[in-house]
Amino acid sequence: MVPQDSLLVILVQLVDRLPMPAQPSKRRRGHPVVYTDRLFLKALVIMIVLYWLLRISVLKYEGKEQCGKPCPLCG
Fold first, then answer.
1. What HEC string does the chain produce?
2. Relative to the CA of 11, which of 2, 5, 49, 59 has its CA 20 to 30 Å away?
3. pTM of the predicted protein model
4. Would residue 48 count as lying in a domain?
5. pLDDT tens, 27-61?
6. Distances (CA, A) of 42 to 9, 22, 25, 64
C-alpha cells in the first residue's frame, strides 16, 4: 500500500469528483458514444502533468554545471 498518493493520482481523483451532466436517457440514432467526457478529461490531465514534469526535468538538466569531461550529449 502506498502511504502517500502522487500528484497525478490526486488530480485524477479530483476529476472523478467533478460534477458532470447526466447522459441523455433517449438514445439517438447513429454510432453510440464510446468514451465519456470524464475519461477525456483524465487523459488531458495526465498529458499536462507529464508534459510539465518533462519540461522541469529538461530545465534542471540544462541548469547543471558542466563536469569538464567530454560527453556525447553535451558536445
1. CCCCCCHHHHHHHHHHHCCCCCCCCCCCCCCCCCCCHHHHHHHHHHHHHHHHHHHHHHHHHHHCCCCCCCCCCCC
2. 59
3. 0.62
4. yes
5. 677 776 678 888 899 999 999 988 988 888 887 77
6. 10, 18, 24, 34
